[in-house]
Amino acid sequence: MNFPIKVSPRARLVLLAVALLSLFYFILDSYLTNDTSGCSLQRDHIFFLKMHKCGSSTVQNILMRRGLQKELNFVLPRNGHYLGHPEPFRRSHVDARFLSFDATFDVLAHHSRFSPCGVAEVMPPDAVKVTILREPVDLFESLYNYYKLNRARYGQSLGKLLQFDLQMLKSMAKSMSRWGGRIGFNQMAFDVGLMPEDFYKKWRVNQTIKQMDEQFDLVMISEHMEASLVLLADTMCWPLEEVAFVSLNRRLNSTTARTELSDSEKEKLREVNWADARIYDHFKGEFERKVREYGEAKMEAKVAELKRLNAQLEAECISQVIEPENPSKDYPVFTYQINENAAEVCKLVVMEELDFTAMLKRVQLERFSHLEGDVDDA
Hints:
By secondary structure, the chain is of the alpha/beta class. Helices cover 50% and strands 9% of the residues. It is globular, with a radius of gyration of 24 Å.
């Protein structure tokens, strides 16, 4: 004969507490790692306007790693790592070996100068448009030292350049040719398509901001990289693991690689980079609004989780962070040595852009060759 098992009221409460606690941890874990704000389908089509010196190489690496894993098709340059720039982007800037196929592109993540019409020529209508901005004074100081503009363009240190009066600097910004045709004052405004002669025209800058508001689904902020990537993952319906990163192109924190600026010098730089400052201030406000809409407590939790994922990725992949041997050389940035027997993804996490681009070309040409017959190797 079977007898019913008697459970005391106290035991029932303990069992109920255990069950509720287990449910809480399950929901919390899902919330932190897998929540995609109700998305049922991950999005693959993305255009990323890669801004100079805005932490964009880190974002690009995330997009290239994910795209490689998912076997997505990239818009890739004919050579190097620029898609036309400083010319506004158009379809003819793409490697012709890919254009000869009737292929749909999923990702555009290389340097280009923004052109809505050009992007529409190669990206599907549902492509998410994303870019990233940085505080203009920090950006220009980084740009000046990273590209050695004291030698390549202006012939003097940044400190000496800032001894010119403001009107002279603005005249230089409008009229002097840019280094390589690409690099100079108001870099973000230039990358997004504004012409130098319009840098100080309020109506043209406002028009550029309006166009960006209409065209871009997300404008990230470099100083808030983790929060920006949380919003990117949310926008694209991606798990947080897919935006984990190791910082790339990070400079030495030394006087040989950086220029210390006084408050008055910073103010002058902000004035000469007036278009950049207007664009940055507007979209920093928009970014803060998006964070509030997302939920500040939720954002704080997600940022903490992403930092944990970043630390885990670095521990699994990186055995040594290597300082540049000669900080005075071009591009004096940290590099990484990966652990022996590290996972294949670790090689991608620290891979330089040109090497990664060459790999994507080889993989993509091989993929297309199955459809179109033999294709010459990259």
